[in-house]
Amino acid sequence: MGQKRFARLSRVLIGLVVAIVLSSAALVAQAQREPIRIGLLNAITGPLAVNGTEINEGTRLYWEDEMSGQVAGRPVRLIIEDSEGKADVGLTKVRKLVESDRVHLILGPVSSAVAVAIRDYVHERTIPTIITQATANNLTAEKASPSIFRSAMSSYQQEAAGGWYVAAKLGHKRIAVVALDYVAGHEQADGFIKAFRDGGGQSVEKVLMPLGAMDVAPYITRVQDKAPQLDAVVGILWGPSAPQWVKAWNEYGLKGKLPLLTLGETVNETYLRSVGDAALGVVSWLSYSPVLDTAENKRFVKAFNKRFRKDPVYNNHLGYLAAKASGEAMKAVNANVEDKALFLAALRKVSFEAPGGSFRFDEKQNAIIPTYIRRVDKVGGKFQRTSTSSGSRRSRSGDGPPQPARSRRTARHGAPSRPRSRSGKQISS
Question: Rounded to two decimals, what is the model's pTM?
Answer without folding.
Answer: 0.82
